[in-house]
Structures are given as C-alpha cells and as structure tokens.
Design a protein that fits this description.
Length: about 280
C-alpha cells in the first residue's frame, strides 16, 4: 500500500516552532546560495509539515526534531544529522542524501520515490509501509532495517547488507538485488517478479510463499533458507545453491530444475502439490 500523500503543505515556515525561532530568510536563501558555514542547529524542534523542498542543506543538525509530514522533495542533503528524527509520513521524493546519519529513524508511511541514498547507513530504521520505487539504495547498510509492506519497485539494492532485515509482504518487482546479502532476512509473502538477484545471498532467509517468478537468480545462495510455498516459475537458477533449503510446497519449473543439485528430500518436496500454482503461460 502506498503511503498517504495528502500532506498539509506549508509555503513558509512558522516563526515559532516549538518555542524556538528559525531564521526563515536564511533557510530559504539556500535555494539560491549553498551554505557551507558552521553547522546550522535545528535540534529539538517541532517542525511538523514544514516545507524544505528543493533546498541544498549542508551541515544541518536536525537531531531529536519532529519532521512528521515534512517536505524534502528534490532537496540535496549533505552531512545532515538526522539522529533520532521522526520522518513519519514525510515526502522525500527525488531527494539526494550524501554522508547523512540515518540510523534508527522512523521513516514509516513516508514517500521516498526515486531517492538517492547510495551507501547510506540505515541500520535499524523503520521504513514500514513506505514507498521507495525507483530508489537507489546500492551499497547501503540495511541491517535490522524494517521494510515491511513497502513498495520498492524498480529500485537498486545491489550490494546492500540486509542481514536480518524485514521485507515481509514487500513488493520488490523489477528491482536490482545483485550481490546483495539478505542472510536471515524475513521476506515472507514478498513479491519479487522480474527482479535480478544474481550472486545474491539468501542463506537462512525466510522466503515462504514469496513470489520470485521470471527473475534472474544466477549463482544465488538459498542455503538453509525457508522457501516453503515459494514460486520460482521461469526463473534463471543457473548455479543457484539450495543446500539444506526447505522446498516444501515450492514450485520450480522443469527447465530450471535441470540447473540445480537437489537432495532426494527436496525433490520429494517439489513433487508434492505446490501451495501456489504457476501463472498461466
């Protein structure tokens, strides 16, 4: 489900935000001139629904600030401190983040379509029900990050470290997961049609009832993964490793089976009726 986008848009910032005054003129002047002066301090503020769209923000400190529903569309944020910031329902579409602290943030129900977060540390952050379609998260640290029920279609997650991350019921259709590490990640019910996950690691991950049809999974590692009821119809599984994986009720088409080395137990599991039938050809 896409996040709610009916934000209250403020064209100017309030003079008094949580009993502290923000110099609106200086902040808005960043639209025309980049500020590289000493770090701007906007800590401990209530900045709900404020408009920071199309700004260049450098060395800004938002620590402990409530940015619920705030607008950062098209903005460029460099060396910005977002520690313990609340970005619930914020809109950051087309924003670019460089060297930004985003650990353990509440970014739930927000919109980050086409955002650039290359190499960012998002450890432990909450993106529950957030839209990240077209986002570039390549090389990010996603350890213990929650992406439950997100829409991450056409995104770049290549090379991410998503150890023990949450992707339950998430739509990853047409995304790039090449060389990504999803060891012990929770991905039950996730939709991953037409994705590329070559050389990706899903060791010990929960992929039960996940839909991976028509995806490229060459040399992917599914060792000890729970693939119960997963749909691998028309996937390229050349060189994929399913050692110790649970394939009970899973579906792998006959053409793909020829590329796999499976145990007698796994072949028996696949011989049983799949939990979900393949899509019509």
């Amino acid at each position: 489900m896409k996040p709610y986008k009916g934000y209250k848009i403020m064209t100017t910032m309030k003079e008094d935000i949580s009993r502290q005054t923000i110099d609106e003129g200086k902040l808005l002047s960043r639209r025309k001139k980049r500020s590289t002066d000493s770090q701007a301090d906007f800590k401990n503020l209530n900045a709900e629904y404020c408009n920071f769209s199309n700004l260049t923000l450098e060395n800004v400190d938002f620590e402990n600030t409530d940015l619920t529903g705030a607008l950062f569309t098209g903005s460029s944020l460099t060396k910005v401190n977002l520690e313990n910031v609340k970005l619930y329902c914020a809109n950051m579409d087309n924003a670019t983040f460089n060297d930004v602290n985003m650990i353990e943030l509440d970014v739930s129900s927000a919109s980050l379509d086409n955002v650039k977060l290359i190499g960012a540390d998002l450890n432990g952050s909450d993106f529950n029900r957030t839209s990240l379609s077209g986002a570039d998260l390549s090389g990010c640290n996603l350890v213990n990050t929650d992406f439950t029920d997100c829409e991450i279609c056409g995104a770049n997650l290549s090379g991410v470290n998503a150890y023990a991350a949450q992707f339950g019921d998430t739509d990853l259709t047409d995304s790039n997961l090449d060389k990504a590490d999803f060891t012990e990640a929770y991905m039950e019910g996730s939709i991953m049609f037409l994705m590329s996950a070559n050389d990706a690691i899903f060791a010990g991950a929960d992929l039960s009832i996940a839909a991976l049809a028509s995806s490229s999974l060459k040399k992917a590692n599914f060792s000890n993964a729970n693939c119960k009821g997963a749909n691998f119809d028309r996937c390229d599984l050349t060189g994929a490793d399913f050692t110790g994986a649970n394939l009970d009720g899973a579906y792998i088409d006959k053409k793909s089976l020829k590329h796999l080395k499976l145990s007698a137990k796994q072949l028996a599991q696949l011989a049983s009726k799949p939990l979900f039938l393949p899509y019509p050809r």
